[in-house]
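Late entry, evening session. Most of the bench is empty. Finally got around to the prediction I had been postponing all week. Sequence below, unchanged from the version circulated by S.P.
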Amino acid sequence: QVQLVESGGGLAQAGGSLRLSCAASGRTFSSAAMSWFRQAPGKEREFVAGITWIRASTDYANSVKGRFTISRDNAKNTVYLQMNSLKPEDTAVYYCAADQSKRTVVSRLQSNYGNWGQGTQVTVSS
């Protein structure tokens, strides 16, 4: 059974920082890309950032580029999302997802991700 468990969400003030973690267990992700998506109230879920395991290639949504950094620890099967300069519009439930294909670049298509975490709430106050 593949499991993805997110942690690190919470409340932050505008301009502040949070770090999200996503721990993968139950299966190796040596060839998987891992991404973060988010869903704000009343909006569709959207891609935030992604990273491949093999070459650590990354991709970011324009809305977070320069503020968020995705990284991974292969030994711990964990992916992180460092979120700096937070804005109220970053408020959302953040989901971790795994793409276990052998893609060498990050995909932004949710249908390519077969495993999802339960989500963690991030709330940014103004």
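Two things to note before I forget:
The CA atoms of residues 49 and 60 lie 4 Å apart.
The two ends are 40 Å apart (CA to CA).
Will write this up properly tomorrow.
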